[in-house]
Specification:
This protein has helices at residues 2-22, 24-28, 52-63, 66-81. It has one domain. The protein is mainly α. Helices cover 59% and strands 0% of the residues. The protein has four helices and no strands.
Length: 91
């Protein structure tokens, strides 16, 4: 199962590289965010929901890092700037 987990991680990293290449402008303008817990989840598979506590702990450790706090803040600010593409006229 470890080999499969490794291939899933590699696949998502390759997908990210292709996405950034295609949407470079958004990446450069700080409009693309990917939050990826890189330590503490290596032994937990996608189907192992019973290890929720371990996943939460690893995620908490990831998010307390100041660099991640800054990225989350930037992401929130970016979402706050988003305007609806729908025009709602209630008159």
């Amino acid at each position: 199962m470890r080999e499969k987990r490794g291939s899933i991680a590699t696949e998502t990293e390759e997908t990210e590289k292709r996405f950034i290449a295609k949407w470079r402008k958004h990446f450069d303008e700080n409009r693309y965010f990917r939050f990826n817990v890189d330590q503490g989840l290596q032994s937990i598979g996608l189907d192992e929901h019973k290890q929720k506590g371990a996943m939460e702990s690893a995620t908490d450790r990831y998010l307390v890092n100041q660099a991640q706090k800054n990225r989350v803040r930037d992401c929130i600010e970016n979402l706050n700037l988003k305007q609806s593409v729908y025009i709602v006229d209630f008159s």
